[in-house]
Write a structure and sequence with these properties.
Shape: rod-shaped
Helix content: over 70%
Strand order of the largest sheet: 1-2
Distance between the termini: 110 Å
Length: 126
């Protein structure tokens, strides 16, 4: 139990629209009796209010967790799509590399043919 009768729970909950915060002030369970004279509540009423506050906090957290899970799922789907796109580009590059290698082989063959023709011409015209 904290020595302060008020327990401050600050949750920085980041929402889809850029962020937000949820700040709740709850009485510590051991401090309920101290506030009965101030609030006019019985122990049962104070405990009920604390329970309701806790239920609201839990619901808010569950909602934020669900939103975070949806954002994570969306991010995973984008990552999978980006990976597939990158693989497509890698495949295209590999295909182009193969084509370039083939073209280099053709050029080398043409050079050999040119050299052969030059030798043939040189032999005919001494």
């Amino acid at each position: 139990m904290p020595s302060n009768p008020w327990v401050t729970i600050i949750l920085a909950l980041i929402g889809a629209g850029g962020g937000g915060g949820l700040v709740l002030l709850l009485k510590a369970p051991g401090d309920i009796k101290k506030t009965n004279a101030e609030t006019g509540l019985t122990n049962t009423q104070a405990a009920t209010q604390l329970s309701e506050s806790w239920a609201k906090l839990t619901a808010a957290l569950q909602g934020e967790v669900a939103k975070a899970e949806m954002r994570a799922t969306s991010a995973e789907q984008h990552a999978v799509g980006a990976a597939a796109e990158a693989k497509g580009y890698r495949d295209q590059m590999a295909a182009m590399t193969g084509e370039i290698t083939g073209m280099r082989a053709q050029i080398a063959s043409m050079r050999e043919q040119i050299i052969s023709l030059e030798h043939e011409l040189a032999d005919r015209n001494p």
